[in-house]
Amino acid sequence: MSDTKTLKESHKRVKKLLTIKPEKGQYTTSTKIRVRDGTTCDIEHKHWTFTADVGKEEGGKDAGPGPSVLQRGALGSCLAIGYVKWAAYLDVPLDGIEVGIEADVDARGTYGLDGVKPGYKGLRYKVFIDSPASDEEIMKVIEQADNHSPLLADFVSPVEVEREVNIVKRKKAKRNS
Question: Which domains, ranges and CATH numbers included, belong to the chain?
Answer without folding.
Answer: 4-25+66-156 (3.30.300.20), 31-65 (no CATH)
